[in-house]
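Troubleshooting log. The previous structure file for this entry was overwritten by mistake, so regenerating from the original sequence record. Sequence copied from the archived sheet and checked twice against the printout by T.R.
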Amino acid sequence: MQRAAVFDVDGTLVDTNHLHVTTWWEALRQAGHRVPMHAVHRAIGLGSDDLVAHLLGDDRDKDQDDELSAAHKALYGQYFDRLPALQDAGRLLRRLDQDGWRVVLATSAGGAELSALRRAIDADDAIMATASADDVEEGKPAPEPVEHALELAGVPAERAVLVGDTVWDMRAGSRAGVRCVGVLCGGIPRADLVEAGAQAIYDDPAHLLASLADSPLA
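Regenerated output below.
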């Protein structure tokens, strides 16, 4: 039977979490909101609408949501031509593809942002499909992005592994019924990832690649 390796992208394969923190913080600041960076960091991995709701609450001026998202997109877009892939991210995807895994990306990014991320990873030959924010109604931590990735791969949940760097990834994967692997390169503490459902933890893609034989992706 086929197997699927489902990967988050930001903070998992590409070193972008702190760029997102800075640009979201600046977008919020420009709109008059004082949100500490540590709070923004813990919200990274949520889709734009959910991130704003998480940080500003239900009593916010919801008419401002689209403006905040557009401001963040414009600020973050300045980095599209120099997004840094994490060490061995592309090599990891190619190795899994060679080992017979169907590699699928599941990300809240879409459009030009997703294209920039894929350029940074530089492993399109190993990526079978992408479940992006453009394809689902609910983002992580809802299971829909992971479920859609499994549909694209044609693989049942029990034959799949999700790799991600946030609690939102782990919760989405757990709700979708897949095994979850956490990486620490997004800056989220090990204990938080384990509590959210991670069954194994690695430092980054390079560590996972070096440890592949003893990992859930063996």
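The radius of gyration is 16 Å. Archived copy saved in two places this time.
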